[in-house]
């Protein structure tokens, strides 16, 4: 995989992410205690991403997901890990939507680490995963046991967005 993104593109993406997705801490360490787990962050909108990116000629959508082994490990470690790939310009970011199945409705995970009120399972609220080729999302410790619907999507440096890949994750 080759990434031909000028430094200015990468820095504009970083500025976009920090401006549109401020860190809303759930595990923020006290000052001076060193780095802690990455906080959950809302992902920028697809339109904002495509405006900041899209400078690389590539029509191929990237792919992202996680394995059954990763899902089993996440039950114990509360860290969901996966991979993403792109044959063109390279993966710019991976976004994840996590929703607990509650009867015929779903409770979406918010950047504060809490589940929202039950709503339709077709909706999604995407959070930014850490990393690209190998990504991870730290799940809050207080998530209740149950079945979760995880929607994973990758976005490449050309602005191509993967159709969300839906997988199940059982916690507890």
Percent helix, as a range, is 10-25%
Number of H/I helices:
3
Low-pLDDT windows of residues? 1-37
Q: Mean of residue pLDDT?
A: 79
Largest sheet features? 5 strands, antiparallel
The rough form would be described as globular
Strand content: 25-35%
Q: Tally of extended strands? A: 8
The whole-angstrom Rg is 16 Å
Separation of termini?
Answer: 37 Å
> What is the count of structural domains?
1
Structural class: alpha+beta
N-to-C series of helices and strands: HHEHEEEEEEE
Oligomer: single chain
Overview of the molecule:
The protein is α+β, with helices and mostly antiparallel strands. It has one domain. The protein is built from three helices and eight strands; from the N terminus they run ααβαβββββββ. Strands 3, 4, 5, 7 and 8 form a five-stranded antiparallel β-sheet that branches. β3 and β4 (105-108) form a beta hairpin.
List keywords for this structure.
alpha+beta; three-stranded antiparallel β-sheet; 8 strands; globular; disordered N terminus
Topology:
Elements: H1 7-20, H2 46-52, E1 63-65, H3 68-77, E2 79-85, E3 91-102, E4 105-108, E5 127-128, E6 134-138, E7 146-156, E8 165-171
Antiparallel strand pairs: 1-2, 2-6, 3-4, 3-5, 3-7, 7-8
Short description:
This protein has 172 residues and is α+β, with helices and mostly antiparallel strands. Helix content is 18%, strand content 30%.
């Amino acid at each position: 995989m080759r990434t031909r993104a000028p430094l200015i593109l990468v820095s504009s993406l970083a500025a976009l992410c920090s401006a549109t997705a401020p860190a809303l801490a759930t595990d923020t360490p006290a000052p001076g205690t060193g780095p802690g787990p990455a906080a959950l962050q809302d992902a920028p909108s697809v339109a904002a991403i495509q405006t900041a990116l899209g400078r690389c000629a590539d029509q191929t959508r990237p792919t992202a997901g996680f394995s059954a082994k990763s899902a089993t490990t996440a039950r114990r470690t509360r860290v969901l890990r996966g991979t993403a790939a792109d044959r063109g310009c390279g993966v710019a970011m991976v976004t994840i939507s996590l929703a607990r199945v509650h009867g015929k409705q779903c409770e979406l995970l918010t950047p504060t680490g809490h589940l929202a009120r039950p709503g339709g399972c077709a909706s999604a609220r995407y959070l930014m995963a850490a990393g690209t080729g190998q990504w991870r999302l730290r799940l809050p410790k207080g998530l209740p046991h149950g079945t979760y619907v995880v929607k994973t999507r990758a976005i490449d440096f050309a602005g191509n967005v993967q159709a969300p890949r839906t997988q199940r994750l059982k916690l507890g």
